[in-house]
Write the structure tokens for this entry.
Amino acid sequence: MSSSWSLHHQLAKDTLEVGDLPLSRLLIIKDSNYPWLLLVPRRAGASDLIDLNEVEQAQLTTEINRVSRALKEITKPDKLNVAALGNVVPQLHVHIIARRTSDAAWPRPVWGLVAAAPYDPAEAVRFTQALREKIWIT
């Protein structure tokens, strides 16, 4: 882990922390319209997948798979969307979004279509705990 790594201020503002995996920090986007997670590799200066070495890329793929399986089991979506974009926030982060044909944006991308709906505090705790249990984050 790089000691100079820190979470981008926009990601910190827009998320709830779940915990750390070996490479990445797992976060929940503060929008209850969609079960929407982020994995952020804790590597200073990483903005693209190629900024990680091959071992880190493999670890990130493992973490994406682990988190995706947990999210799918918890939320039972119609489809999972996985993407690393970073056009607004340059820090490397991977979106994992559980989509339903009944969600507010279906079948379009989730960005900017409807206003973010804050989580009920009890629901945020329940979702966070379910993720920690499925992914084995203590």
User: Anything to note?
Assistant: Residues 55 and 94 are 17 Å apart (CA to CA).
